[in-house]
């Protein structure tokens, strides 16, 4: 199990002084047990615990960023041996300074056991320190990877948005050009509506998800632009479930589908065309279904580059890491496309 450390320095101090206190009490207890009923002084336990504490701090300071490579276990063992000799040497040095012959004599008696205990204790501290460093390296690499993927994903989403806007703009300008000669007033009206539509689009550039009702208002503005060209031939009906009104969707995710519906439902087709947009929410999944009629004879000849559907599929994958959120079907001259938007909030 990997523990996430909130403050490594604090944990180092707590661990080191916990080792110091436990080492002192255990050493003092063993000294009292071996020498009873004689009176014992706490010099040896105090000096031994302080020596091991100094060595622990040396480990944390010198191996703070150390990550051993493969087959470097001998190096770790040698470091531990050097620190063990240092801890024992410090104890002998300070005991000599206090002229405590009894404590010094007892220390020499238990020296082999003390050496082994110090070695194992310092080896555990070294291993724990290395595990901390490995965890920090793992967390840092993971953070950098996630940040890199996020930047790349945002850049690709932005690129898709920038491609989508000219795609719609060129189509709208062609419609305006077609109306200038025959219906100049409607061409002027369509120009104003296009200006409002693009202004609303630019305001949404900094948001990946927007409220559903804002997206619907944007779609209606787009449909108003198309109705200038097609007039009474185009009818659109929105069915929005009340529970779905507070949902959020990716900005401009539905507009390419409406554009396809108008393209295959109205271009080169005579008569009235009705496009329906059904929006429902169930089990935290928002479903947006667009249906439109199409002429089977015209459908094959009107196939384009598929940029609209491809961009939607790609955006949904980048945002939700799923490839099953866009579905299309054709039955009885009715083309149906459905977008599913997970609602995590």
From TrEMBL:
<feature type="transmembrane region" description="Helical">
    <location>
        <begin position="45"/>
        <end position="66"/>
    </location>
</feature>
<dbReference type="InterPro" id="IPR036890">
    <property type="entry name" value="HATPase_C_sf"/>
</dbReference>
<feature type="transmembrane region" description="Helical">
    <location>
        <begin position="115"/>
        <end position="134"/>
    </location>
</feature>
<protein>
    <submittedName>
        <fullName>GHKL domain-containing protein</fullName>
    </submittedName>
</protein>
<feature type="transmembrane region" description="Helical">
    <location>
        <begin position="12"/>
        <end position="33"/>
    </location>
</feature>
<keyword id="KW-0812">Transmembrane</keyword>
<dbReference type="Pfam" id="PF06580">
    <property type="entry name" value="His_kinase"/>
</dbReference>
<dbReference type="GO" id="GO:0016020">
    <property type="term" value="C:membrane"/>
</dbReference>
<feature type="domain" description="Signal transduction histidine kinase internal region">
    <location>
        <begin position="155"/>
        <end position="234"/>
    </location>
</feature>
<feature type="transmembrane region" description="Helical">
    <location>
        <begin position="73"/>
        <end position="95"/>
    </location>
</feature>
<dbReference type="GO" id="GO:0000155">
    <property type="term" value="F:phosphorelay sensor kinase activity"/>
</dbReference>
<keyword id="KW-1133">Transmembrane helix</keyword>
<dbReference type="InterPro" id="IPR050640">
    <property type="entry name" value="Bact_2-comp_sensor_kinase"/>
</dbReference>
<dbReference type="InterPro" id="IPR010559">
    <property type="entry name" value="Sig_transdc_His_kin_internal"/>
</dbReference>
<keyword id="KW-0472">Membrane</keyword>
């Amino acid at each position: 199990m990997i523990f996430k450390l909130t403050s490594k320095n604090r944990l180092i101090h707590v661990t080191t002084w916990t080792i110091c206190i436990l080492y002192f009490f255990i050493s003092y207890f063993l000294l009292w047990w071996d020498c009873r009923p004689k009176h014992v002084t706490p010099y040896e336990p105090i000096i031994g615990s302080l020596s091991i504490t100094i060595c622990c701090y040396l480990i944390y300071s010198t191996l703070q960023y150390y990550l051993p490579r493969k087959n470097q276990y001998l190096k770790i063992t040698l470091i531990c041996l050097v620190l063990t000799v240092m801890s024992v040497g410090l104890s002998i040095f300070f005991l000599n300074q206090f002229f405590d012959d009894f404590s010094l004599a007892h220390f020499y008696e238990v020296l082999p056991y003390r050496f082994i205990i110090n070695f194992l204790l310092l080896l555990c501290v070294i291993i724990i320190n290395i595990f901390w460093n490995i965890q920090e390296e793992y967390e840092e690499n993971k953070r950098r990877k996630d940040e890199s993927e996020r930047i790349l994903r945002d850049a690709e989403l932005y690129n898709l948005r920038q491609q989508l806007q000219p795609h719609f703009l060129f189509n709208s300008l062609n419609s305006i050009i077609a109306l200038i000669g025959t219906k100049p007033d409607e061409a002027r009206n369509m120009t104003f509506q296009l200006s409002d539509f693009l202004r609303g689009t630019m305001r949404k550039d900094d948001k990946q998800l927007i409220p559903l009702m804002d997206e619907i208002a944007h779609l209606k503005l787009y449909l108003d632009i198309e109705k200038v060209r097609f007039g009474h031939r185009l009818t659109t009906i929105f069915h929005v479930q009340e529970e779905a009104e507070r949902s959020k969707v990716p900005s401009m995710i539905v507009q390419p589908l409406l554009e396809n519906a108008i393209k295959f439902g109205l271009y080169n087709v005579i008569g009235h065309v009705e496009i329906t947009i059904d929006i429902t929410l169930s089990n935290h999944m928002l479903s947006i279904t667009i249906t439109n009629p199409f002429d089977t004879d015209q459908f094959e000849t009107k196939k384009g580059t598929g940029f609209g559907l491809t961009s939607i599929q790609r955006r949904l994958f980048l945002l939700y890491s799923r490839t099953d959120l866009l579905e299309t079907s054709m039955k009885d001259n009715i083309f149906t496309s459905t977008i599913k938007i997970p609602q995590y909030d």
